[in-house]
Amino acid sequence: MSSFDSMFTYSSALGANDYTAGTFLIDAATGLITWSDTLYRIHGYQRGEVVPTVELAMAHKHPDDRAKILEMNAALSQAGGHFSCYHRLIDSFQREHRVLASGEAVLDADGRLFSIVGIMVDLTSTVHSETERATRDAVAGAVRARAVIERARGILMGRLSIGADAAFALLCIHSNYTNIKLAAIASQLVGLAEDPRNAAAFATLVHDLQCHTAHAPAIRREKVKQPAAHKS
Q1: Is the pLDDT of residue 66 over 50?
Q2: Cα within 13 Å of Cα(195), Cβ side
Q3: Where are the domains positioned within the chain?
């Protein structure tokens, strides 16, 4: 079986940086495993330090994943076929890896398990990079949303001569009533307010914001200035 140690690997999350992938072959009769050099490194070893066996490989599986892996192995032993398994692996230094193993269980002529051949990809760096990117994007999005909400609150304070809490309550009540995210309502309000051509639409939105307070709990309505009643 060819080794993946010298092959080019690519991760969209890591860009030009390689990620780790290796191959394995399990001999069902002996329980011995042939690992590529990369598989030794994923498990925290160098070639020659240990003899890979099914028992050793299972000992490195995360305790919470071990039962499902044993269940999958039992099914492969009976029916053979292809498999794919994303799980956690604990190396000899007690470091956790996120790995994807995939391959094929081969049966002999009598229907007994002969071997399992496959590859294992260490996705730890990719997962960490994607998580960090998602966190950064979420924080940046929250900051942008907060800024827009603050601008919308200021616009309402000036337009209606109300306090900061009352202006924020208007936005929240309208968000709950329309089931539209607060940041989206604030963005719409700011966009309309900044363009004089949208004066009518802006006035309508402000009116809707005020009117929807009638559907809010009394304690919140008290904070919001209601439209003045028309004298007959």
Answers
A1: yes
A2: 10
A3: 20-122, 134-221
> How much is the pLDDT for 50?
95
- Choose the CATH number for 20-122 among 3.40.109.10, 3.30.450.20, 3.40.50.1100, 3.50.50.60: 3.30.450.20
The answer to whether the CB of 44 falls within 8 A of the CB of 92 is yes
Write down the H helix ranges in 80-214. 124-160, 164-178, 182-194, 199-211
d(C-alpha 27, C-alpha 40), whole Å: 17
Whole-angstrom distance, CA of residue 128 vs CA of residue 143: 22
Q: Kindly state the average pLDDT of the residues 179-194.
A: 90
- Give the integer Cα–Cα distance in Å for 181 and 174: 9
The pTM of the full predicted model, rounded to 2 decimals, is 0.59
Alpha-carbon 75 to chain mean position: 30
Give the dihedral of Cα atoms 184, 186, 188, 189; nearest 10 deg. 160
Which residue shows structure tokens 């904070």?
223
